[in-house]
Write the structure tokens for this entry.
Amino acid sequence: MEDTDTLLFPSDDALNADGAGRKLPSNLEAEAAFLGAVLIDNRVIEELRTPIRPHHFFEPLHERIYEKIIKAVDANRTASPVTLKPQFEGDPALQELGGPAYLAKLTANGSGLLAPHELAQQIYDLALLRELVSVGRGLVEGALDTSDSVQPMDRIAEAEADLFKVAEGAETGNEASTFRDASLMAIKMAEAAMNSGGGLSGKTTGISVIDAKTSGLHNSDLVILAGRPGMGKSSLAMNIAYNCAAEHLRWQKDGGEHNYGAPAAFFSLEMSADQLATRVLAEQAEISSESLRSGTLSRDDFQKLSFASQRLAELPLYIDDTPALTIAALRNRARRLKRRHDIGLIVVDYLQLLQGSGRANDNRVNEISEISRGLKTLAKELSVPVIALSQLSRAVEQRDDKRPMLSDLRESGSIEQDADMVWFIYRADYYHLAIKPDDPKMDGTSSAEVVEKYRAWEEKYEELRNRATLIVAKQRHGSTGNVPLHFQSEITKFSSPNWKYDENEFR
């Protein structure tokens, strides 16, 4: 048996090399010193700034030792060489180092207690470097594969996804969460909702009636916002993105215990960035979008616009108007925005304009299914809510009741299946305008019937004007129902209603 006064480790070159004869980044002495510190004082784990997990250790024996320590500490038991000894008496790797006495050797000099945080950081950093080596090896091997089935853009997307995981400090394959971890997250969400005073446990939409119905936008959720053309889907989505980003900016400046906003990314496949910016400026300056586009502004209006522009200069809202994006390209761009700006909300306008991988064999239903699954995967991967706008089929127009239903989602049932929430925007005044009768003649020659018909239509229009309904048709985390909204068409702004409404109508 070799002298155990010196720390000995397996010398398996296959384990310790990167495949080209070079040693993988590691520091076994730092691992041993850190384990010694933890075995002397278990409280070291609680005070760590770096999230050290068993898989961050290079030496398999050290990984097993730390795993046993974590289990003991989680069970409120003391982890020491004495308490761990029975669990390692038959461990062959430990036998090579002198048996259970090696556990005592780890605590021999206690040098790790002098700098446990620095040791933990080094172990963590070296683990990330090894992940980079693994990603690089996979990238090289994939690039050398020239078979017909290989798609170079897919290889790039996979490599970028792996690099994102390394940048986020995540392992290549996520481990299952314990129920304890999951329940703690649930309690934190409930606490946030309680502290908000309004049941808000996710990110705010900035529209109180929507927040009250949904408790906000939750990380990893895919929200489908659908409607027929002209209903205001893009306007509502931009309102929400703006409100969320503005709340984050307010929190940065004023502080507060909880941040209910986040930097937002708006992927517009239909409108250009300047068109979207025009909408936001018009809304915030309370100037008609039509006046802004036509240039018929007064000096006062232009001054309002200038002030609004200055106020919004720091707004963390990022607009990508690249046309004809594939779902893979969108995911790559979203990852970059997450790394660079820590975005917490993604809006895609709109789903049907995205393209799939091209492997759907020209089957549009399969392509839409691939896109909706890709958006849900993106929401989970980045842990952010994703709002994807969607068109509805023309079946809506063929019914007397124009309120949308889940069956109206266009081209694929998988959209409904993948979504955590499905919202429909509905404006009755839009359809009422379509049946406007001829105006009565000003000279008084119109019949009483024509005048009465027009008067009845006008009264109904005044009742419906500026009123909208958000139909929550699906919600995994809560009830479905209708949410009343106020819509200012001249500045394309949705907000909570400023009129009294019957609660029973919107249940």
